[in-house]
Protein backbone atom coordinates (compact mmCIF):
# COMPACT_ATOMS: atom_id res chain seq x y z
CA UNK A 1 0.00 0.00 0.00
CA UNK A 2 1.19 3.54 -0.63
CA UNK A 3 2.28 5.60 2.36
CA UNK A 4 0.78 9.04 3.02
CA UNK A 5 2.06 11.64 5.47
CA UNK A 6 -0.45 14.09 6.93
CA UNK A 7 1.71 16.90 8.29
CA UNK A 8 -0.98 19.41 9.34
CA UNK A 9 -4.33 18.98 11.15
CA UNK A 10 -7.21 17.96 8.88
CA UNK A 11 -10.66 16.65 9.71
CA UNK A 12 -10.77 13.00 10.75
CA UNK A 13 -13.06 12.16 7.82
CA UNK A 14 -10.21 12.98 5.43
CA UNK A 15 -7.78 10.81 7.37
CA UNK A 16 -10.27 7.95 7.41
CA UNK A 17 -10.77 8.14 3.65
CA UNK A 18 -7.01 8.04 3.03
CA UNK A 19 -6.61 5.17 5.48
CA UNK A 20 -9.13 3.08 3.57
CA UNK A 21 -6.66 2.69 0.70
CA UNK A 22 -3.23 3.59 2.05
CA UNK A 23 -1.02 3.58 5.10
CA UNK A 24 -1.42 6.97 6.75
CA UNK A 25 0.87 8.59 9.31
CA UNK A 26 -0.38 11.76 11.01
CA UNK A 27 2.61 13.73 12.31
CA UNK A 28 1.72 17.29 13.26
CA UNK A 29 4.18 20.07 14.06
CA UNK A 30 7.25 18.63 12.36
CA UNK A 31 10.29 20.85 12.28
CA UNK A 32 11.74 21.43 8.78
CA UNK A 33 14.68 19.13 9.43
CA UNK A 34 12.36 16.41 10.76
CA UNK A 35 10.19 16.66 7.65
CA UNK A 36 13.24 16.32 5.41
CA UNK A 37 14.36 13.25 7.30
CA UNK A 38 11.13 11.25 6.92
CA UNK A 39 9.82 12.45 3.52
CA UNK A 40 11.76 9.80 1.51
CA UNK A 41 9.42 7.15 2.97
CA UNK A 42 6.19 8.61 1.56
CA UNK A 43 4.28 8.56 -1.71
CA UNK A 44 1.99 11.47 -0.82
CA UNK A 45 2.03 14.50 1.48
CA UNK A 46 -1.02 16.33 2.84
CA UNK A 47 -0.65 19.80 4.37
CA UNK A 48 -2.65 22.90 5.19
CA UNK A 49 -0.89 26.27 5.51
CA UNK A 50 1.43 25.54 8.43
CA UNK A 51 3.92 23.19 6.74
CA UNK A 52 6.19 24.79 4.14
CA UNK A 53 6.90 22.43 1.26
CA UNK A 54 10.12 23.89 -0.06
CA UNK A 55 12.23 22.86 -3.04
CA UNK A 56 14.55 21.13 -0.57
CA UNK A 57 11.64 19.15 0.85
CA UNK A 58 10.50 18.16 -2.63
CA UNK A 59 13.99 16.94 -3.49
CA UNK A 60 13.96 14.88 -0.30
CA UNK A 61 10.64 13.27 -1.22
CA UNK A 62 12.03 10.95 -3.84
CA UNK A 63 8.90 8.75 -3.78
CA UNK A 64 6.39 11.60 -3.75
CA UNK A 65 3.72 11.43 -6.43
CA UNK A 66 1.34 14.04 -5.07
CA UNK A 67 1.25 16.93 -2.59
CA UNK A 68 -2.21 17.99 -1.39
CA UNK A 69 -3.22 21.28 0.18
CA UNK A 70 -6.38 20.87 2.25
CA UNK A 71 -7.66 24.30 1.22
CA UNK A 72 -7.43 26.68 -1.71
CA UNK A 73 -4.09 28.49 -1.61
CA UNK A 74 -0.84 26.68 -2.38
CA UNK A 75 1.55 29.52 -1.55
CA UNK A 76 3.35 27.28 0.94
CA UNK A 77 4.25 24.76 -1.79
CA UNK A 78 7.04 25.31 -4.31
CA UNK A 79 5.02 24.65 -7.48
CA UNK A 80 7.96 25.03 -9.83
CA UNK A 81 10.03 22.49 -7.93
CA UNK A 82 7.11 20.09 -7.74
CA UNK A 83 6.40 20.35 -11.45
CA UNK A 84 10.05 19.84 -12.32
CA UNK A 85 10.05 16.73 -10.15
CA UNK A 86 6.92 15.39 -11.82
CA UNK A 87 4.87 15.69 -8.62
CA UNK A 88 1.20 16.64 -8.89
CA UNK A 89 0.06 19.43 -6.58
CA UNK A 90 -3.66 19.33 -5.79
CA UNK A 91 -5.93 21.48 -3.65
CA UNK A 92 -9.51 21.60 -2.39
CA UNK A 93 -11.13 24.76 -3.78
CA UNK A 94 -14.81 23.85 -3.41
CA UNK A 95 -15.09 22.54 0.14
CA UNK A 96 -15.59 25.96 1.74
CA UNK A 97 -17.81 27.48 -0.96
CA UNK A 98 -21.08 27.09 0.94
CA UNK A 99 -19.51 28.26 4.19
CA UNK A 100 -18.33 31.50 2.56
CA UNK A 101 -21.70 32.06 0.89
CA UNK A 102 -23.60 31.49 4.13
CA UNK A 103 -21.27 33.83 6.02
CA UNK A 104 -22.00 36.47 3.38
CA UNK A 105 -25.73 36.08 4.00
CA UNK A 106 -25.17 36.21 7.77
CA UNK A 107 -23.28 39.48 7.49
CA UNK A 108 -25.92 40.94 5.19
CA UNK A 109 -28.65 40.17 7.73
CA UNK A 110 -26.49 41.45 10.59
CA UNK A 111 -26.21 44.78 8.76
CA UNK A 112 -29.87 44.90 7.85
CA UNK A 113 -31.13 44.21 11.38
CA UNK A 114 -28.37 45.86 13.47
CA UNK A 115 -27.78 42.55 15.23
CA UNK A 116 -24.30 43.21 16.72
CA UNK A 117 -25.26 46.53 18.31
CA UNK A 118 -28.57 45.13 19.57
CA UNK A 119 -26.74 42.13 21.04
CA UNK A 120 -24.29 44.29 23.00
CA UNK A 121 -27.10 46.56 24.18
CA UNK A 122 -29.15 43.70 25.61
CA UNK A 123 -26.05 42.10 27.16
CA UNK A 124 -25.39 45.44 28.82
CA UNK A 125 -28.77 45.41 30.54
CA UNK A 126 -30.61 47.72 28.10
CA UNK A 127 -33.89 47.15 26.29
CA UNK A 128 -34.03 49.81 23.54
CA UNK A 129 -36.12 48.32 20.75
CA UNK A 130 -36.58 51.58 18.86
CA UNK A 131 -32.83 52.24 18.74
CA UNK A 132 -32.22 49.28 16.44
CA UNK A 133 -34.84 49.67 13.73
CA UNK A 134 -33.71 47.64 10.72
CA UNK A 135 -34.72 47.01 7.12
CA UNK A 136 -35.95 43.93 5.28
CA UNK A 137 -33.85 42.40 2.52
CA UNK A 138 -36.98 41.34 0.66
CA UNK A 139 -37.47 43.41 -2.52
CA UNK A 140 -34.03 44.97 -2.08
CA UNK A 141 -31.38 44.87 -4.80
CA UNK A 142 -28.26 42.80 -4.18
CA UNK A 143 -25.24 43.55 -6.36
CA UNK A 144 -22.82 40.63 -6.62
CA UNK A 145 -19.36 41.49 -7.90
CA UNK A 146 -17.92 38.18 -9.07
CA UNK A 147 -20.00 35.17 -10.10
CA UNK A 148 -17.51 32.42 -9.40
CA UNK A 149 -18.28 29.56 -7.02
CA UNK A 150 -19.05 31.67 -3.94
CA UNK A 151 -20.83 34.45 -5.84
CA UNK A 152 -23.01 31.85 -7.54
CA UNK A 153 -24.01 30.30 -4.22
CA UNK A 154 -24.79 33.74 -2.79
CA UNK A 155 -27.07 34.42 -5.77
CA UNK A 156 -28.94 31.16 -5.22
CA UNK A 157 -29.53 31.94 -1.56
CA UNK A 158 -30.48 35.57 -2.15
CA UNK A 159 -33.18 34.47 -4.58
CA UNK A 160 -34.99 32.73 -1.73
CA UNK A 161 -35.02 36.04 0.14
CA UNK A 162 -36.98 37.67 -2.68
CA UNK A 163 -34.15 39.97 -3.71
CA UNK A 164 -33.45 41.48 -7.12
CA UNK A 165 -30.02 40.29 -8.26
CA UNK A 166 -27.48 42.29 -10.22
CA UNK A 167 -24.09 40.90 -11.23
CA UNK A 168 -20.74 42.19 -12.41
CA UNK A 169 -18.39 39.64 -13.92
CA UNK A 170 -17.02 40.21 -17.44
CA UNK A 171 -15.84 36.62 -17.57
CA UNK A 172 -19.12 34.71 -17.39
CA UNK A 173 -21.60 34.31 -20.21
CA UNK A 174 -24.99 36.10 -20.21
CA UNK A 175 -26.73 32.71 -20.44
CA UNK A 176 -25.04 31.55 -17.25
CA UNK A 177 -26.11 34.70 -15.40
CA UNK A 178 -29.64 34.38 -16.75
CA UNK A 179 -29.92 30.86 -15.35
CA UNK A 180 -28.96 32.27 -11.95
CA UNK A 181 -31.57 35.00 -12.20
CA UNK A 182 -28.84 37.64 -12.29
CA UNK A 183 -28.88 40.73 -14.49
CA UNK A 184 -25.35 41.45 -15.70
CA UNK A 185 -24.15 45.04 -15.88
CA UNK A 186 -20.97 47.13 -15.54
CA UNK A 187 -19.64 47.67 -12.03
CA UNK A 188 -20.48 51.38 -11.97
CA UNK A 189 -24.12 50.69 -12.82
CA UNK A 190 -24.31 47.91 -10.22
CA UNK A 191 -22.99 50.24 -7.52
CA UNK A 192 -25.53 52.91 -8.39
CA UNK A 193 -28.53 50.54 -8.24
CA UNK A 194 -27.75 48.15 -5.37
CA UNK A 195 -29.01 48.33 -1.78
CA UNK A 196 -26.47 45.68 -0.75
CA UNK A 197 -23.13 45.04 -2.52
CA UNK A 198 -21.09 41.89 -1.92
CA UNK A 199 -17.62 41.21 -3.33
CA UNK A 200 -16.56 37.79 -4.59
CA UNK A 201 -13.83 38.50 -7.14
CA UNK A 202 -10.29 37.12 -6.96
CA UNK A 203 -7.47 39.45 -6.01
CA UNK A 204 -5.54 40.41 -9.15
CA UNK A 205 -3.75 43.52 -10.34
CA UNK A 206 -6.98 44.71 -11.93
CA UNK A 207 -9.21 44.06 -8.89
CA UNK A 208 -6.99 45.49 -6.16
CA UNK A 209 -8.91 48.47 -4.74
CA UNK A 210 -11.74 47.80 -7.17
CA UNK A 211 -13.85 49.63 -4.58
CA UNK A 212 -12.06 52.95 -4.14
CA UNK A 213 -13.03 56.56 -3.67
CA UNK A 214 -14.54 56.93 -7.15
CA UNK A 215 -16.58 53.75 -6.87
CA UNK A 216 -17.78 54.64 -3.37
CA UNK A 217 -18.97 58.01 -4.69
CA UNK A 218 -21.23 56.13 -7.13
CA UNK A 219 -22.84 53.87 -4.53
CA UNK A 220 -26.52 54.36 -3.91
CA UNK A 221 -26.96 56.47 -0.73
CA UNK A 222 -27.83 54.23 2.20
CA UNK A 223 -26.35 51.08 0.62
CA UNK A 224 -24.43 48.48 2.60
CA UNK A 225 -21.13 46.86 1.53
CA UNK A 226 -20.04 43.29 2.36
CA UNK A 227 -16.63 41.69 1.82
CA UNK A 228 -15.95 38.01 2.53
CA UNK A 229 -13.38 37.68 -0.29
CA UNK A 230 -10.07 39.53 0.03
CA UNK A 231 -9.38 42.67 2.05
CA UNK A 232 -7.32 44.28 -0.70
CA UNK A 233 -10.39 44.57 -2.93
CA UNK A 234 -11.40 47.66 -0.94
CA UNK A 235 -9.44 50.86 -0.40
CA UNK A 236 -9.89 50.96 3.37
CA UNK A 237 -9.06 54.66 3.68
CA UNK A 238 -11.70 55.50 1.08
CA UNK A 239 -14.20 53.22 2.83
CA UNK A 240 -13.62 54.96 6.15
CA UNK A 241 -14.19 58.34 4.50
CA UNK A 242 -17.41 57.10 2.87
CA UNK A 243 -18.69 55.80 6.21
CA UNK A 244 -17.87 59.07 7.94
CA UNK A 245 -19.60 60.97 5.15
CA UNK A 246 -22.88 59.10 5.75
CA UNK A 247 -23.07 57.86 2.16
CA UNK A 248 -22.90 54.22 3.29
CA UNK A 249 -25.35 52.88 5.84
CA UNK A 250 -22.83 50.26 6.86
CA UNK A 251 -20.13 47.77 5.94
CA UNK A 252 -19.56 44.16 6.98
CA UNK A 253 -15.97 42.97 6.70
CA UNK A 254 -14.65 39.46 7.21
CA UNK A 255 -11.29 40.23 5.60
CA UNK A 256 -8.80 43.08 5.78
CA UNK A 257 -5.77 44.19 3.78
CA UNK A 258 -3.63 43.40 6.83
CA UNK A 259 -4.57 40.48 9.06
CA UNK A 260 -4.81 40.70 11.99
CA UNK A 261 -5.88 44.31 11.29
CA UNK A 262 -4.39 45.75 14.50
CA UNK A 263 -5.61 49.26 15.29
CA UNK A 264 -7.47 49.69 12.00
CA UNK A 265 -10.02 52.51 12.60
CA UNK A 266 -12.67 50.55 10.71
CA UNK A 267 -12.89 48.12 13.64
CA UNK A 268 -14.17 50.79 16.01
CA UNK A 269 -16.50 52.48 13.53
CA UNK A 270 -20.16 52.27 14.64
CA UNK A 271 -21.30 51.37 11.10
CA UNK A 272 -18.93 48.42 10.66
CA UNK A 273 -19.63 44.78 11.48
CA UNK A 274 -16.35 42.82 11.58
CA UNK A 275 -15.46 39.13 11.88
CA UNK A 276 -11.98 37.52 11.97
CA UNK A 277 -11.82 35.85 8.53
CA UNK A 278 -14.52 33.29 9.30
CA UNK A 279 -15.64 32.63 5.72
CA UNK A 280 -14.42 29.02 5.75
CA UNK A 281 -14.69 28.42 9.49
CA UNK A 282 -17.41 25.82 9.79
CA UNK A 283 -17.14 22.23 10.87
CA UNK A 284 -18.74 21.17 7.60
CA UNK A 285 -16.29 23.19 5.48
CA UNK A 286 -13.28 21.76 7.25
CA UNK A 287 -14.67 18.27 6.79
CA UNK A 288 -15.44 18.84 3.10
CA UNK A 289 -11.99 20.33 2.48
CA UNK A 290 -10.31 17.32 4.09
CA UNK A 291 -12.40 14.85 2.09
CA UNK A 292 -11.84 16.75 -1.16
CA UNK A 293 -8.07 16.81 -0.63
CA UNK A 294 -8.07 13.09 0.22
CA UNK A 295 -10.01 12.28 -2.95
CA UNK A 296 -7.45 14.13 -5.05
CA UNK A 297 -4.55 12.27 -3.43
CA UNK A 298 -6.13 8.86 -3.97
CA UNK A 299 -6.94 9.69 -7.60
CA UNK A 300 -3.31 10.53 -8.36
CA UNK A 301 -2.02 7.45 -6.52
CA UNK A 302 -4.43 5.34 -8.60
CA UNK A 303 -2.99 6.80 -11.80
CA UNK A 304 -6.11 8.84 -12.57
CA UNK A 305 -6.25 12.59 -13.30
CA UNK A 306 -7.20 14.72 -10.30
CA UNK A 307 -9.77 17.40 -11.03
CA UNK A 308 -7.98 20.10 -9.00
CA UNK A 309 -4.36 19.77 -10.08
CA UNK A 310 -2.74 23.19 -9.84
CA UNK A 311 0.57 22.62 -11.62
CA UNK A 312 1.21 21.98 -15.31
CA UNK A 313 0.73 18.48 -16.69
CA UNK A 314 3.40 16.49 -18.44
CA UNK A 315 3.48 16.55 -22.26
CA UNK A 316 4.19 13.08 -23.67
CA UNK A 317 7.41 12.68 -25.65
CA UNK A 318 5.52 11.65 -28.80
CA UNK A 319 3.86 15.05 -29.18
CA UNK A 320 6.28 17.25 -27.28
CA UNK A 321 8.44 18.21 -30.26
CA UNK A 322 5.40 19.35 -32.27
CA UNK A 323 2.97 20.77 -29.73
CA UNK A 324 5.16 22.13 -26.92
CA UNK A 325 6.04 25.39 -28.74
CA UNK A 326 2.36 25.94 -29.52
CA UNK A 327 1.38 25.59 -25.87
CA UNK A 328 3.24 28.86 -25.35
CA UNK A 329 1.57 30.37 -28.41
CA UNK A 330 -1.86 29.33 -27.16
CA UNK A 331 -1.27 30.79 -23.71
CA UNK A 332 -0.21 34.15 -25.13
CA UNK A 333 -3.23 34.25 -27.45
CA UNK A 334 -5.57 33.60 -24.53
CA UNK A 335 -4.00 36.28 -22.38
CA UNK A 336 -4.13 38.83 -25.20
CA UNK A 337 -7.79 38.03 -25.87
CA UNK A 338 -8.70 38.73 -22.24
CA UNK A 339 -6.88 42.06 -22.30
CA UNK A 340 -8.44 43.19 -25.59
CA UNK A 341 -12.00 41.99 -24.96
CA UNK A 342 -15.04 44.19 -24.46
CA UNK A 343 -18.33 42.91 -23.05
CA UNK A 344 -19.26 39.60 -21.48
CA UNK A 345 -17.45 36.45 -22.56
CA UNK A 346 -19.74 34.13 -24.55
CA UNK A 347 -17.54 31.54 -26.21
CA UNK A 348 -14.18 30.66 -27.72
CA UNK A 349 -13.35 29.07 -31.06
CA UNK A 350 -9.89 27.54 -31.45
CA UNK A 351 -8.73 26.60 -34.95
CA UNK A 352 -5.68 24.44 -35.68
CA UNK A 353 -4.10 24.45 -39.13
CA UNK A 354 -1.13 22.53 -40.46
CA UNK A 355 0.92 19.93 -38.66
CA UNK A 356 -0.57 20.63 -35.22
CA UNK A 357 -4.04 19.73 -36.53
CA UNK A 358 -2.93 16.10 -36.97
CA UNK A 359 -2.38 15.57 -33.24
CA UNK A 360 -4.50 15.49 -30.09
CA UNK A 361 -4.85 19.24 -29.46
CA UNK A 362 -6.58 19.09 -26.08
CA UNK A 363 -3.53 20.62 -24.44
CA UNK A 364 -3.61 23.56 -26.87
CA UNK A 365 -7.27 24.22 -26.19
CA UNK A 366 -6.54 24.09 -22.47
CA UNK A 367 -3.62 26.51 -22.90
CA UNK A 368 -5.84 29.05 -24.67
CA UNK A 369 -8.41 28.79 -21.89
CA UNK A 370 -5.73 29.01 -19.20
CA UNK A 371 -4.41 32.21 -20.76
CA UNK A 372 -7.94 33.53 -21.11
CA UNK A 373 -9.01 32.86 -17.52
CA UNK A 374 -5.71 32.99 -15.65
CA UNK A 375 -5.79 36.72 -14.95
CA UNK A 376 -9.43 36.81 -13.90
CA UNK A 377 -9.88 33.72 -11.76
CA UNK A 378 -9.24 33.38 -8.07
CA UNK A 379 -8.01 29.86 -8.58
CA UNK A 380 -4.72 28.54 -9.91
CA UNK A 381 -5.64 28.11 -13.56
CA UNK A 382 -3.62 25.56 -15.49
CA UNK A 383 -3.82 23.21 -18.44
CA UNK A 384 -5.82 20.66 -16.48
CA UNK A 385 -8.48 22.76 -14.77
CA UNK A 386 -8.93 25.50 -17.39
CA UNK A 387 -11.55 23.56 -19.44
CA UNK A 388 -13.48 22.79 -16.24
CA UNK A 389 -13.44 26.45 -15.17
CA UNK A 390 -14.58 27.53 -18.64
CA UNK A 391 -17.48 25.09 -18.45
CA UNK A 392 -18.42 26.33 -14.98
CA UNK A 393 -18.51 29.89 -16.31
CA UNK A 394 -20.82 28.91 -19.15
CA UNK A 395 -18.31 29.54 -21.93
CA UNK A 396 -18.86 27.54 -25.10
CA UNK A 397 -15.65 26.14 -26.60
CA UNK A 398 -15.48 25.09 -30.25
CA UNK A 399 -12.54 23.47 -32.03
CA UNK A 400 -11.84 23.45 -35.76
CA UNK A 401 -8.95 21.85 -37.63
CA UNK A 402 -7.46 21.88 -41.09
CA UNK A 403 -4.28 19.84 -41.71
CA UNK A 404 -3.50 21.85 -44.86
CA UNK A 405 -2.18 25.23 -43.65
CA UNK A 406 -1.10 27.67 -46.35
CA UNK A 407 0.76 30.58 -44.79
CA UNK A 408 2.74 28.66 -42.14
CA UNK A 409 3.71 25.09 -41.27
CA UNK A 410 1.27 25.38 -38.38
CA UNK A 411 -0.94 28.22 -37.21
CA UNK A 412 -3.21 28.50 -34.20
CA UNK A 413 -6.18 30.88 -34.32
CA UNK A 414 -8.42 31.81 -31.37
CA UNK A 415 -11.60 33.84 -31.61
CA UNK A 416 -13.31 35.19 -28.50
CA UNK A 417 -17.02 35.86 -28.88
CA UNK A 418 -18.38 38.48 -26.50
CA UNK A 419 -21.50 40.58 -26.20
CA UNK A 420 -19.39 43.26 -27.87
CA UNK A 421 -17.23 42.80 -30.95
CA UNK A 422 -15.53 39.41 -31.43
CA UNK A 423 -11.73 39.36 -31.41
CA UNK A 424 -9.56 37.02 -33.46
CA UNK A 425 -5.85 36.44 -32.92
CA UNK A 426 -3.55 34.01 -34.71
CA UNK A 427 -0.09 32.88 -33.78
CA UNK A 428 2.63 30.47 -34.75
CA UNK A 429 6.05 29.35 -33.56
CA UNK A 430 9.22 30.03 -35.52
CA UNK A 431 12.80 29.63 -34.35
CA UNK A 432 11.43 28.63 -30.94
CA UNK A 433 9.73 32.01 -30.59
CA UNK A 434 6.05 32.87 -30.35
CA UNK A 435 4.83 35.05 -33.23
CA UNK A 436 1.51 36.87 -33.32
CA UNK A 437 0.68 36.98 -37.01
CA UNK A 438 -2.91 38.18 -37.20
CA UNK A 439 -5.18 40.56 -35.27
CA UNK A 440 -8.74 40.37 -36.57
CA UNK A 441 -8.32 40.90 -40.33
CA UNK A 442 -4.85 42.45 -40.11
CA UNK A 443 -1.84 40.31 -41.02
CA UNK A 444 1.42 41.27 -39.31
CA UNK A 445 4.24 39.60 -37.39
CA UNK A 446 5.38 40.45 -33.89
CA UNK A 447 7.30 38.58 -31.21
CA UNK A 448 5.74 39.51 -27.83
CA UNK A 449 9.08 39.83 -26.09
CA UNK A 450 8.51 43.11 -24.23
CA UNK A 451 6.67 43.60 -20.93
CA UNK A 452 3.94 45.66 -22.58
CA UNK A 453 2.16 45.78 -25.94
CA UNK A 454 0.16 48.76 -27.16
CA UNK A 455 -2.55 47.92 -29.72
CA UNK A 456 -3.56 51.03 -31.65
CA UNK A 457 -6.55 51.04 -34.02
CA UNK A 458 -5.80 53.94 -36.34
CA UNK A 459 -6.18 55.53 -39.74
CA UNK A 460 -3.13 54.75 -41.87
CA UNK A 461 -2.01 58.23 -42.89
CA UNK A 462 1.18 60.27 -42.64
CA UNK A 463 1.91 61.25 -39.08
CA UNK A 464 -0.08 58.50 -37.31
CA UNK A 465 2.98 56.56 -36.16
CA UNK A 466 4.89 59.72 -35.36
CA UNK A 467 2.05 61.14 -33.27
CA UNK A 468 1.94 58.07 -31.03
CA UNK A 469 5.73 57.98 -30.80
CA UNK A 470 5.84 61.65 -29.84
CA UNK A 471 3.44 61.12 -26.94
CA UNK A 472 5.44 58.10 -25.76
CA UNK A 473 8.72 59.98 -26.00
CA UNK A 474 7.38 63.01 -24.17
CA UNK A 475 6.54 60.75 -21.23
CA UNK A 476 9.81 58.78 -21.32
CA UNK A 477 8.18 55.56 -22.54
CA UNK A 478 10.63 53.51 -24.57
CA UNK A 479 9.37 51.79 -27.75
CA UNK A 480 11.18 48.52 -28.47
CA UNK A 481 9.51 47.73 -31.82
CA UNK A 482 6.53 48.66 -33.97
CA UNK A 483 4.52 46.70 -36.53
CA UNK A 484 1.59 47.80 -38.71
CA UNK A 485 -1.02 45.68 -40.44
CA UNK A 486 -3.43 47.27 -42.91
CA UNK A 487 -6.07 46.22 -45.39
CA UNK A 488 -5.66 48.97 -47.96
CA UNK A 489 -3.53 51.98 -48.82
CA UNK A 490 -4.24 54.75 -46.30
CA UNK A 491 -7.11 52.75 -44.87
CA UNK A 492 -7.81 51.57 -41.38
CA UNK A 493 -4.81 49.86 -39.77
CA UNK A 494 -3.63 48.10 -36.62
CA UNK A 495 -0.42 49.41 -35.08
CA UNK A 496 1.28 47.33 -32.38
CA UNK A 497 4.12 48.77 -30.32
CA UNK A 498 6.35 46.81 -27.99
CA UNK A 499 7.08 48.90 -24.90
CA UNK A 500 9.67 48.60 -22.17
CA UNK A 501 7.65 50.82 -19.83
CA UNK A 502 3.99 50.92 -18.74
CA UNK A 503 1.69 53.66 -20.01
CA UNK A 504 -0.10 55.55 -17.22
CA UNK A 505 -3.88 55.87 -17.73
CA UNK A 506 -3.64 59.60 -18.42
CA UNK A 507 -1.05 59.06 -21.16
CA UNK A 508 -3.16 56.30 -22.72
CA UNK A 509 -6.09 58.72 -22.85
CA UNK A 510 -3.81 61.27 -24.50
CA UNK A 511 -3.00 58.74 -27.25
CA UNK A 512 -6.67 57.87 -27.70
CA UNK A 513 -7.46 61.56 -28.12
CA UNK A 514 -5.17 61.90 -31.17
CA UNK A 515 -7.33 62.73 -34.23
CA UNK A 516 -6.22 59.74 -36.32
CA UNK A 517 -6.61 57.18 -33.49
CA UNK A 518 -9.83 55.18 -33.04
CA UNK A 519 -8.77 53.24 -29.96
CA UNK A 520 -5.69 52.13 -28.02
CA UNK A 521 -5.29 49.19 -25.61
CA UNK A 522 -2.33 48.42 -23.35
CA UNK A 523 -1.61 44.76 -22.61
CA UNK A 524 0.71 43.64 -19.81
CA UNK A 525 2.49 40.37 -20.58
Describe the structure.
The protein is of the alpha/beta class. The protein folds into four domains: 3-95 and 284-301, Rossmann fold (3-Layer(aba) Sandwich), CATH 3.40.50; 97-274, NAD(P)-binding Rossmann-like Domain (Rossmann fold, 3-Layer(aba) Sandwich), CATH 3.40.50; 314-440, D-3-phosphoglycerate dehydrogenase, domain 3 (60s Ribosomal Protein L30, Chain: A); 451-525, Alpha-Beta Plaits (2-Layer Sandwich). Helix content is 34%, strand content 24%. It contains 17 helices and 22 strands. It has helices at residues 12-19, 32-38, 55-60, 79-84, 97-113, 115-123, 149-160, 174-180, 187-193, 213-218, 236-244, 283-301, 317-340, 362-374, 386-392, 464-474, 505-512, and strands at residues 3-6, 23-26, 44-47, 66-69, 88-91, 141-145, 164-168, 183-184, 196-199, 223-227, 248-253, 272-274, 345-354, 396-402, 410-418, 423-430, 433-439, 442-446, 452-459, 479-486, 492-499, 517-524. The strands form four sheets. It has a seven-stranded parallel beta sheet with strand order 8-7-6-9-10-11-12, with helices on both faces. A six-stranded mixed beta sheet has the order 14-13-15-16-17-18, with helices on one face. Strand 10, helix 11 and strand 11 (248-253) form a beta-alpha-beta unit. The mean pLDDT is 92.
Amino acid sequence: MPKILVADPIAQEGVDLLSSRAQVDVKIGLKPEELLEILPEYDALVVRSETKVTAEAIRAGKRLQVIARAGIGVDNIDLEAATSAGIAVVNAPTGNTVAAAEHTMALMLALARNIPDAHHSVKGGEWRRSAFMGIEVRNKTLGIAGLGRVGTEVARRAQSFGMRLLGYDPFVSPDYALRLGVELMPLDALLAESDFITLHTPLTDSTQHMIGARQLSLIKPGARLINVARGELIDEDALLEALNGDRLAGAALDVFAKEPPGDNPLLSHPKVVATPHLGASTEEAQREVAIEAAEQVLAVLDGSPARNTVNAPFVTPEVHSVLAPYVRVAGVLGKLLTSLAEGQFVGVTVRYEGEIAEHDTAILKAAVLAGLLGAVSGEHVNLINAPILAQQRGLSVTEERNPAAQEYTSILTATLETTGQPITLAGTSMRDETHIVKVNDYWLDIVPSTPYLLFVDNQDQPGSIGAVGTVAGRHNINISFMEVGRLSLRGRAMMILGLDDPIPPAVLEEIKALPQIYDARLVTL
